[in-house]
Amino acid sequence: MLSINAVKGFEYGQGFGSMELKGSQQNDLFFNDNGKINVHTNRSGGIQGGISNGQDIYFRVAFKPVATVLMEQPTVDIHGNDTILKARGRHDPCVLPRAVPIVEAMAAMTILDYYLLNKTTRL
């Protein structure tokens, strides 16, 4: 996900929010759920030690805001002189409409890549 343009952060499970917790608060406790092994919380987002634990995998991707805004901003020129930046032209105010299908496609391609890699090593 970090290879997608404008992505600045990636987390799965509780991600950065878990940094304020103790290990005992973060752990996903396994239990026998009528013959099926399950977890109470899935705080890890389905990934433990870099491997799926069989739970739903979920993650979040953070995008930086669009850098070009259509308002005057103070800046400096190449000589260090104070000036005003006036953006012109068409600039999208939000990458969100395109971000969702791009992230979904990247997740699908990554899963497919590992599926095919696993399938070829068995031959």
Automatic annotation (TrEMBL):
Q: Which GO terms describe its molecular function?
A: chorismate synthase activity; FMN binding
In terms of InterPro entries, this protein maps to: Chorismate_synth (IPR000453), Chorismate_synth_AroC_sf (IPR035904), Chorismate_synthase_CS (IPR020541)
**SUPFAM superfamilies, per database record:** Chorismate synthase, AroC
Name the domain of life.
Bacteria
Q: Which GO terms describe its biological process?
A: amino acid biosynthetic process; aromatic amino acid family biosynthetic process; chorismate biosynthetic process
Cofactor(s) listed in the protein's UniProt record: FMNH2
Give the record's pathway: Metabolic intermediate biosynthesis; chorismate biosynthesis; chorismate from D-erythrose 4-phosphate and phosphoenolpyruvate: step 7/7
Pfam families from the UniProt entry: Chorismate_synt
**Broad EC category:** lyase
EC assignment: the record states: 4.2.3.5
* One GO term describing the cellular component: cytosol
Q: Which UniProt keywords apply?
A: Amino-acid biosynthesis, Aromatic amino acid biosynthesis, Lyase
Question: Do the record's keywords include Nuclease?
Answer: no
The UniProt entry's sequence similarity note says: Belongs to the chorismate synthase family.
Name this polypeptide is given: chorismate synthase
From what organism does this protein derive? Phocaeicola coprophilus DSM 18228 = JCM 13818
